[in-house]
Amino acid sequence: MVSIIIPTFNYAEFIGDAIHSVKAQTLGDWECIIIDDCSTDDTVHVVEKLVEGDNRFRYICLEQNSGVSAARNRGLKECKGKYIQFLDADDVLAPMKLERQSKWLDNHSDLDIVYSDFFHFTGKADFSATGEYQNDEKFSGSGNIIIGRLLKRNVFRMNTLLIRKDSLNTHLFREELISVEDWEFWLRLACEGLRFEFLKDQQCISGVRVNPKGLSKDIPVMKKFYLPVLQLILVHYSIGFGNRFSAWMRYLNGFFDRLFKGEAIEIFPDRKRLFTAGLAWRIPVFILPYILFKIVRR
């Protein structure tokens, strides 16, 4: 069985499309858990009308607004499936996605996560659209190969992946991360050695809605949590010399950018003293090349 987890907050306008795409799946063995993060719009009425009489759906409303990570975590704690499919409330899945990706994982027991292409859309989704993952975003493997690619930027679109539940173990999303929580989640899974594979199959494509209200459009918030994510990876995982060097360079570059712009720099409490000690001796080593780099760029 596949467990589909849909977190939602005030997406009454779009969640119907997400639910319809779930109901259209050719795979019949699924459950869908909708976690409402205390919506104040008409979400509850839209959902209740669409799922009435279908006991494969469960609708859970959180007691207080807690953020998308808390909503997804509640779904993970509630789900019973062999595989996990995350679906944002304004996005859609191609009808055969769950059937074909779950079969792929069934036939490849060494894999933990499979993902396929996506397209952006407004209005009605066209599942024959050309996929938008770039060639360097279509990769397979585990460990430092995946970590190195993810350190450059988040590659994965949430809806494109299907995850073997047992591989997650006790991993949940970090609820203190208001943004880029998915980037930290994928990095953490890569650091744990989970094996990813890109499956080229048009029938597995996902639609990602162009939505100005989406969290991925809030660039200032995303930048605020960029440094804490790198800190968490640096203090908790052994990621190889090359990736550790890259992570520190990216952290220091972001650190000085925020410092010179007068923007707040947040350091999480996780092993804070150890991290700040490492940061302190790296700053003078980095600052001269950084200044020279900025001068050259001008």
Name of the CATH first level of the largest domain = Alpha Beta
Q: Using DSSP, what is the number of strands?
A: 10
Q: CATH homologous superfamily of the largest domain - what is it?
A: Spore Coat Polysaccharide Biosynthesis Protein SpsA, Chain A
The level of helicity is 40-55%
The number of domains: 2
Radius of gyration, taken over Cα atoms and rounded to an integer in Å: 20 Å
What's the overall geometry? globular
User: Which fold name fills CATH's third level, the topology of the largest domain?
Assistant: Spore Coat Polysaccharide Biosynthesis Protein SpsA, Chain A
Architecture per CATH nomenclature, i.e. the level-2 architecture of the largest domain: Alpha-Beta Complex
| Biggest sheet layout | 7 strands, mixed
Structural class: alpha/beta
Number of helices: 11
Beta-strand percentage?
5-15%
Determine the N-to-C terminus distance. 56 Å
Q: Strand order, biggest sheet?
A: 3-2-1-4-8-6-9
| Unreliable residue stretches | none
**Helix-strand sequence:** EHEHEHEEHEEHEHHEEHHHH
What is the average of the pLDDT values?
92
